[in-house]
């Protein structure tokens, strides 16, 4: 995926939101939109009620998740047979998705704000999960500010073109566009989305700024080479490569489904609004308790996009309390829903919907 230089914070910072009235003026904001929603400022102000963090709870979830990930990774290395190691390795990969979502919340300033211990912990984790914090903050904060805009939303996200835009591409550009939005790219995400998109490309573009991209590649490749020379390459495969491949592939599809689903809206710059991009262009991914735990509630993605500083454990509470969030566009991990989402390739401004490629 492509990236661009948009900011370089020294520490995690909340995604900027439109200016809001102070609580003293809250009662003055009572306008509604033509579809009956409250004014954007009032919706955003309401969301602030759920940004208060329980630090003890945040640390409990974070430390327990790291302990579980460590135990599963160790078991994947130590178990005696491959048929025992493989399922544990896959489970470690799913737990890495949860850990990544906590990393994501920390980078947004939703949990463990200003904690130097958390900063160090998540930096080390980022090196092993191939996600340098500087690159993630740059591209992901941009994504939050430009989600579902017809022009400019591709940074930190999957590109989206109209049929006419796609028709104007060269054959090589069309092939690349098809590949980026294909299941193959998601299956190979450990190499494409993370190896190239999150590390190599940012480092080559801005080596002083994204030096961690090179450090990350040296770390994970050096780990494999070192274990291989020591005669323990299987430990690398089951302890890091398979979990990372599972986490990268499932995370890449998860991110795709959150912003490419039937009924979503794409707006031009003149009609785009911050709250509209959250409510109409970010999905609610229906999951059971197991996958909600594994993904740290990131399926409540429309709530997260409305206010990225809401801790993950308060997202369901916010969805229930804010009327505009109660009836989102939905998707799921069901194979039928996945197939439907993966067929969506272009935004048709005349039909006002996502469509596939013409046959």
Count of the separate structural domains: 1
Compressed to H and E, one letter per element, the order equals HHHHHHHHHHHHEHHHEHEE
Task: Report how far apart the termini are.
Answer: 26 Å
Oligomer: single chain
Structural class label: mainly alpha
Give a brief description.
The chain is mainly α. 56% of the residues lie in helices and 3% in strands.
Task: Pick out its properties.
359 residues, mainly alpha, two-stranded parallel ribbon, two-stranded antiparallel sheet, 56% helix, 3% strand
Structure overview:
This protein has helices at residues 40-47, 55-78, 82-108, 116-128, 133-146, 163-167, 171-180, 183-187, 190-205, 211-229, 233-259, 274-279, 289-294, 301-306, 315-321, 335-342, and strands at 284-286, 330-332, 346-348, 353-355. The protein is mainly alpha-helical and 359 residues long. It has one domain (53-342). Strands 1-2 form a two-stranded parallel ribbon. A two-stranded antiparallel sheet has the order 3-4. Strand 3 (346-348) and strand 4 (353-355) form a beta hairpin. Mean pLDDT is 91; it is low at 1-11 and 19-32.
Topology overview:
Elements: H1 40-47, H2 55-78, H3 82-108, H4 116-128, H5 133-146, H6 163-167, H7 171-180, H8 183-187, H9 190-205, H10 211-229, H11 233-259, H12 274-279, E1 284-286, H13 289-294, H14 301-306, H15 315-321, E2 330-332, H16 335-342, E3 346-348, E4 353-355
Parallel strand pairs: 1-2
Antiparallel strand pairs: 3-4
